[in-house]
Amino acid sequence: MSTPAVAPATEKIHYEPVTEKDSEEILILLKKFFFKDEPLNTYLDLGECKELELYSTKCIKEKCSFKALNSKNEIVGVFLNGLIHRPKEGEEPVKLADGCEHKKFRKIMGLMDYIDTKFNLFDLYPDIDVALDGKILSVDSNYRGMGISVELTNLTIEHMRQNNIPLMHVLCSSHFSARVMEKLDFEEVFRMPYTDYLDSNGEQILCPAHPHVACRTLVKRIIPTAQK
Questions:
Q1: Using an 8 Å Cβ cutoff, are 84 and 34 in contact?
Q2: Do residues 206 and 111 touch, judged by C-beta distance below 8 A?
Q3: Per-residue pLDDT tens for 203-228?
Q4: Helix (H) or strand (E) holding 196
């Protein structure tokens, strides 16, 4: 996929829903930017990880993700989203780290499993049964500063309004992704400093570079179109 060194200031960006046929091109984008930029991946020097690729794209089938395309119809940004549902009574959460063969990626999945033991979204919001989970927001560095992240988020929110999804949830491992969400009026409901995530010997497991000091959950209530 070829892109200019710097996107022309006048270049027209357009937006469409992501489809499963986009998976390969999206992975190219993620490998070039998100997988390298994400602070936990960087700290662990994650390298090639097929499990991460599968984890990143498996939500596409839920048809609630959006892409930004340049004038050549190349994907230059994505917001990959999935749905999370209230567990049935007595249902145990799936342990993401179980069966994960990539040792470094298992550490990231283990962090998510640990957070699940500390924070339950549906306990905080007893009136909702489904939420949209903002999984990966990534933009080609040549196209940053053009408002693409904001527009992808706004499209996601509009999808939620039209489909009566009342809450958006984003788990941010990066300080910068959390800042984007805060600028869009997302509210922090959970924070875990990386210094609190320790192994059995009391050693810190994940130590990403400053300013990435905490894993944070941010949410935003959405008013469905029918209730406006």
A1: no
A2: yes
A3: 999 999 999 999 999 999 998 776 65
A4: none
